[in-house]
Every structure is written in C-alpha cells, then in structure tokens.
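Weekend entry, working from home. Most of the wet-lab plans are on hold until the incubator is repaired, so I used the time to fold the two sequences that have been sitting in the queue since the last round of cloning. Logging both here for the record. First:
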Amino acid sequence: MTGLLAAATSAADKRAAFRAGLASGRIQRFPGAFNPLVAKLIQEIGFDGVYVSGAVVSAELALPDIGLTTLTEVTARGQQIARVTDLPVLIDADTGFGEPMNAARTVTLLEDAGLAGCHIEDQVNPKRCGHLDGKAVVPAAEMVRRLRAAVTARRDPNFIVCARTDARGTEGLDAAIDRAKAYADAGADLIFTEALADAGEFAKFRAAVDVPLLANMTEFGKSELLSAGLLEELGYNAVIYPVTTLRLAMFAVERGLREIATTGTQSALVETMQHRSRLYELLQYQQYNDFDSGIFNFTVSERSERTKGADGSE
C-alpha cells in the first residue's frame, strides 16, 4: 500500500530534504508539474523536486496570470501534486494573497497541504507574469512585512519561505540586490530574482547576496536559458522550469486536434502518443490490482450466512 494512494515520504521529511538540498552544493532541479501525473514522471526520471507555477494554475483554468486565482484554488492544486510524490514541492504563492496576515495564512494552509515551500513576491497586487512589461513593485518595507508574517506563521522550521523580487525590471539590478538583502534579513530562506537577463547578471547577483538563490529558466522570457550545470558553477542552489511541461503538452494537443480536424482521424498521431501500457505503468495499475486482490481474497459460504442472527451476529 505504501506509495500507492499517497507518497511514502512524509511532508516533514520532504521539507528536510529540500533544506538539505539547498545546502548541498548541488543545484536542485525543479521542473513544473501541471498535474499530479506529471509530478510522478518528474520523480521517476530523477529530478530533485517539483514546482507548481501560479501561471500554470491560472492557465489550466483558462485565465491569464494576473492574480485572479485564489489561495483556495492554488492550495488545492498544490495538495493534489504533493500527495503523489516523494519529492519536495515548491509552490508559487504570488503576493501572499493579500496583506501580511494573508501571507501568514497562506503559509499555514500550504504547510497543512503538504508543500515543502513557497515563494512570495514583491509585486503590487494584482500581479502579472514576471516576464511581462508594466509590472509594479511595492516598497521594500511592505514586502519585508509580508515575509516576516510568512516566516512567523510557519510551524515546521524546514518549510522554505522564498522571497521573489521583480525589481530587476522596474528599478534595476542594483535595487533588486538591495531588496534581496533586506528580504534575507527578514528571514527568507531562499531568494528568487525574476527576469535576470544573462549569465553576467546571474553571476553579479550571486556575488552580492549571501543566501541560497533560485534561478527561473522559463522559455520565451527575458532571461537567457542557462544550463543547470552553468547555474551550479555560478553558485545557484535551485532552478525551476515552471511552464515547460505545459507548453510541451499544449503544443502536442493543438497539433493533434488540428490533424483530427483536417483528416478526420488520429491514426497518423499514434506514434507520437504515450502508449496505454506506459500510462498504466506510471499509474501503477498492477500494484493497485495486487493490493486489491490481497485485501478482497475471501468468500462467504451459504452456511455462514444462514447461521447469522437477525442483527448480523453469528
């Protein structure tokens, strides 16, 4: 039964593994999962953790990433994903969903949902995608209050509170560095600077900030796509690939639907599909069947039924 209906690893152990990974000197790779099944695949392939993107949670609901999703929706999706994997799960908590007290409640609910950590950003609410223009950030002192509330609210000291700053695009790199230092002083375990341009900027940030750092390698954005190996050489502790799996899936879905619309059949697409047997393997069909057979392996004889009393007693 262990590892079937839920992960075998406890939330506390996953959080401890995340914190240890950040201190290991080896970059922690967290691909984004747009559903629990993708999270299982991320674990099977051998990554270090799973990321849940706020942009992806929005996109799955056919909404833009402008702060329309609620704490309840994001927490529910995070819980579904964390439930199925032994890897630590880091989730995007936007701006903390309101005032500092809301940020505190956000951490409480995410802890209860089994997440290993979250990041909270310094954008004005409603926020927008970090790689779009027209962003605005709150004063650093306001973000410090958000972070202090979040850090104070956690009950498991291994729950990672990551501070994201979007100031690079609005105030410049030096201002983003100053904010990162203030956020670390406020108790942030990990710093995520959004939309750095290239390896030089990543290196400058690492040289200036003395806490674990997270890099965002999202496609079609403002950042040069750097390899995990190079980021590790630069001294980064974690890297996320937030929307990659959704983009791969949606490209394939759109291509397939257009093929069916044009030709009236999916026969030309079969070789590009995951086979049913592979899906069943990932879902652990055989293990579920074995468990089910092991539990329901008895029969009830006619004689035993006849000897029961009216109240069901023997």
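Second, folded right after the first finished:
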Amino acid sequence: MINLLELYVKLVGLILIGFILGRKLPSYASTYVGQFLFWLGVPISIIGFLIRTDLSGQIWIAPIIAHLAIFLGAFLAWLKIKAQAYFTQSVPQKSTQGSLILAAMVGNTGFLGFPITLAIVGKEYFAWALFYDMLGSLFGAYGLGVFLAAKFGSNIQSHIQTAKVIFINPALWSFGFGLLLRQVALPSTVVFSLEKLAWGAVALSLMLIGMRLSQLKSWRKVPQAGSSIFIKMLLVPMILGSTLSLFGVTGNAAQVIVLQMAMPPALATLVIAETFDLDRDLAVTALAMGIVVLLVTLPVWLWLF
C-alpha cells in the first residue's frame, strides 16, 4: 500500500505540474514536448529499461493478449452503438462513433503503463509491459485504429501513409536497438546514465498528459465518454483477465497484463482523432476521465490479480 501511495503522489504530482504548465505556456508547447518524447524521450526510455530487463518466460504472449483486448474493446463499443440505435432510435454522428470505438480500443500502455508497471512490479517484469505496448498497442492504434478512423472520419489517408507512420516510429526502432545492445557489455556509467534518462522521459511523459488535459474546454461529452471508459477500463480487463491462467500467465506477469489492459485511452486516440477529423472533444474527455477512473480502479485490479 505504501508503494501505491507513493505512486499516486508521483502520478498526480507530475500530471498536475504538466496541467499548470499547460495553462501558463503557449498552446504549442505541448506539441514540442510531444515531438521531443516521440523522437528522443520514449526511445531512450525503452533502451534504458530494456537493457536490464528479463526477457525469459512467455513474454511473447503479451502482444497476443494485447490484440485480443483491442479487438474485444472495439467489438463491444460497436455493439453499444448498435444497441443505442436500436433501443433509442438515436445514432451518434459518424465522427463520434469513431472516437467512441477508438477510446474503447487502445490504452495508454506507454506513457502511463510503463511507470505504473515499474513502480508496482519493478524492472523484472517490464518486458511484459514493453511487449504489450510495442507489439500490441502500437499496431492496434496505427493499424486497426487508423483503418477505423478512415472509415468514420472525413480526412482519409492512404495505406502507404499508414504504413509509413508505423515504419518510421522511433520507439519501434529503439525496441530493436535495445535488443541488440543487450548483447553488448556496456560500461556501468553508460547503463546508469541511460536509466536516469529513461526515468526523466517517464516523468516528462506524465507532465505531457497534464498539459494535454489543460486544453480540455468542456465536459459535455462525459456521458458518451463514460461508455468507452467502462468498456476499456472495466469490462475488457475483467473478461480477459479471468482467462489469463489459460494462457499460462499467472502471478506478477498476469498483474502486468491486467494493468496494461486497464489503462485509460491512449494519447494516440487524440492524435488519430485530430488527423481524421473525428470527435476531438470526446477523445480529450475520454483521456481525462480515464485518468480519474484509474486512480479508483488501480487498487481493485491489484487486489483481484
């Protein structure tokens, strides 16, 4: 419980600092911070943690479960939209439908999932979170997520552009580079420096979330966002979490997977919503609601799993 309390202080504190900075700094500041993290911060953190991470065991199951969670979230959100249309004769706009499905699909398994995993179960099981994010959430967001966004949005991109987004993602390249560096005997000072830089990038990532939340203008989308949050953060983790033993995933590894499944909607959902002209207000509201809900659900998942 002490570790959980410390985690809450760090999470809330850093997000709050980012929120204050987002109010004080120009609106474009968060864009620059996001670009820095995309090109340098997150890749460095992946390398810094990966070179000391245990890659033994069944970690390749993590991305499989990630894709199951993504498809299940999308399917349940689609069912919810169809049920609403049937029982109330009220159908949300296509742009809103797209944001609803995206918010129920992909979680913030990087910016939030990494620090939470590291704080609760340590670096020993970080590979489970990393594989879930790199080989699961990344392709779910920029693969199926972009496909659905193109279907529901009005700003259509080609499949070549979509493939380019995935291919040039520096986080994916750093993942491979980190695997190669594991085979090299690096000086202790280099390893130490990489680890400190990695933790710095994690802190900056949490501050970026606060900066993004400071841009929220209205809470009128709360009822709609609530349905996606319920699916993403409660229903999917409960359904798939109860089946993890069938995959041979138990103990701390199962805890990591459940926590990753229970993360709030990813920042990528906002990026995609802006790119394809979906419901941006709904995407931002879902991000904000998700973080609040996480503070309540986190101890529940730790208790159950």
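Plan for Monday: verify the second prediction. The chain has a mean pLDDT of 87.
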